[in-house]
Amino acid sequence: MRAVRVRASALLLCLVACGENPTEPGLPPVSIVAASGDGQFGAVGQALPARLQVVVSTTSTGTPRKEVGVLWQVVEGDATFSGSPATLTDKSGSSFASIRLGSVPGDVVIKASVTEQESATVNFTVFAVDRPALDALSVSEAAAGTAITLSGNNFSPTPDHNVVLFSGIRGRVTSASSTELEVLVPVCLPTRSVQVTAQLGAVKSEALALEVTGASDATVLSVGEVVDMADDSSFPCLRLSGLGGASYLVQAMSASTIGGAQHDFEVTGLVGDASPQAQRQAGAQATLEVAGGVSPQARFEELLRRSEAVLVREGVARRQTGPLRVEGAVPSVGHTRTFQVFNADSEFDEVNAVAKYVGARAALYVDEKAPGGGLSTSDLADFGRRFDEVIYPTVRNAFGDESDLDGNQRVVILFTPTVNSLTPRGSTGFVGGFYYGIDLLPDREGSNNGEIFYSLVPDPAGEFSDARPKQNVLEVTPAVLAHEFQHMVHFNERVLVLEAASTEALWLSEGLAQMAEELVASEYELAENSFATQLFRVGNSGRARRYLANPSSTSLLVGAGGRGSLEERGVGWLHVLYLAAQKGVGVLGQLTRTTTTGTDNVTARVGVPWEELLADWWAAVYLDGQDGVASRLTYPGLDLREFLANDFALNPEALGSADFTRSGSLWSSSVQYYIVVPTLQGSVTLRLGGEAGGASPSGAVLRMRVIRLD
């Protein structure tokens, strides 16, 4: 195999693998948004609690931009940077700045701008404050829903800037001065003693005790009843009854669509009949951990999909009407063909291969350099028939048509050790195969001008990477082919037919491709072929279980974590599986044959706002298969627990016998689950807030959903 350097393609791929360098000419127009850190408060002379974060993306496509220069400037107020004010964006398009506030209280305005496009700017406003001092309450006892006055110093004259918490439950400040706050005692508090604090952001006063008389009975929900609360200016909270042995599913979630952002949250629960011992247990903290598990296959696919995005974006201006098609002969067994195959060095190997099987829809070629003792004629025929008879019709019926640029009416499946070499020796996992959209862009160097899937070969001696026995190829490649064939169809329907200006968002593109694996598995299940069913289902179910073991650590929007992880692929598949269960398999084709992108694509097809869709779907992940819940909170026609089998991994923490506080960070479009079980004769008052129980920024889109289980 001779390595061929293809300059144009290698450059485009480097823009993906190495970062889209803003110093290169032709940087497209970009946008910059404040992702997190805006509006926070910090003590004078101290570092802000959280870094400021921006996300830079291509304006036309929304694709995150890596290694774009960002310049941070203090344009008003007193503050300095901890570290250089010149930064670069990471893989998720994010760039960060750490701020130390000066010694003078007041507003601080910080501007972030893209160095190569100074018009792309965004401002942050943060507040340097002295620590509030709470000296006295106007009363020692108060009824829930009534007003009390707090006296002290260093309050904000702006009522909404002040956060007054009653053991973590926020009360509305109705008037404010620097020395007095008038605040309403939250109506959902039970009869009990609470600790009152005043704070500006996370800068908090000492606490004073207040005896509260509850204003009303706790809320009694019926089984399956849903209550939604947003962390907004209405200061919502909910007091749940424990009568009848009630238990509740609680979802703390961010519905933000800003990829790469994390949002602080805090869930507070106050028991209504807490004993002194139980009250002393209040404030227990939980820190959320990030799961690992990076997949070489997923990481490599992400590189290809992002490279395709660059190819499509830069090819829009010179695209001809309709894709180029040529009349080609159907290959025959024994036909020799030369291919350009993308390799581990971001170049292309020149590969000579021989056709070993030609079926109705597939032509299988084997690289002349493949190790001996590989796939037999019988193995190849079985593989070809699997594609012809099941994979091909199943994927096309659900998603649309593939192109036929080379006119041979076949998808070429090339078995080559170049694919083996894509996996570094000693890796956990391996690249099983791929499709690359450059082959459907005939004017690009490196294009093979046709529909091609590339697969690894048996390599039991480990000549090209770690040893891969033949059984690996037979077991792994079929599901990868179904996955990649969907990508091939998707590229044709979206880019070549509809002439979209961009490729689909990575998270949705991958979710649809993984759904192709499941559709093929379902066909084999109908045929009562349990071995083949598992062959196509095992990957998705395993990745889903990994996600469910720690859902708050993974965003649905791939690129938030930016890791190409197994967990990211698991959450994407669970989401698309839910869409198909709710709307029917026809929605998969609708999501494929469109020029809209990402969350806009999904909400346009299902007709439900993003935050509502997320809440329903996350509820369905836990509730599916249970009685007494609305259909929208299930996977119709599917028992998810039975479907995933092998230990359903979602096991939320049970709370409610004592006061609790749980805090952490949520990626955009991620969730944390809890089970709340009040005591039989008691209640639990719940509230979701931002950092330290204060207000969350609007961009976080924090929501809490509560559903009675039994």
Structural class: alpha+beta
On the 0 to 100 scale, the average pLDDT is 87
Using the alpha-carbon principal axes, give the shape.
Answer: globular
Number of helices: 13
Largest beta-sheet details: 7 strands, mixed
- The total strand number stands at 36
Highest-level CATH class of the largest domain: Mainly Alpha
Uncertain ranges: 1-25, 274-292, 316-327
Rg: 28 Å
CATH topology of the largest domain: Neutral Protease, domain 2
Determine the strand fraction and express it as a percent band: 25-35%
Count of discrete domains: 3
**Euclidean distance between termini CA atoms:** 64 Å
Percent helix: 25-40%
Tell me the CATH architecture of the largest domain. Answer: Orthogonal Bundle
Task: Describe the protein's architecture and organization.
With 710 residues, the chain is an alpha+beta fold. It has three domains: 16-129, Immunoglobulins (Immunoglobulin-like, Sandwich); 131-216, Immunoglobulins (Immunoglobulin-like); 296-316 and 324-606, Neutral Protease, domain 2 (Orthogonal Bundle). The strands form eight sheets. Strands 1, 26, 27, 28, 29, 30 and 31 form a seven-stranded mixed beta sheet that branches. Strand 10 (106-114) and strand 11 form a beta hairpin. The longest helix has 28 residues, at 470-497. The chain is globular, with a radius of gyration of 28 Å.
Please tag this protein with its features.
710 residues; alpha+beta; Immunoglobulin-like; 7-stranded mixed beta sheet; 6-stranded mixed beta sheet; 13 helices; 29% strand; disordered N terminus
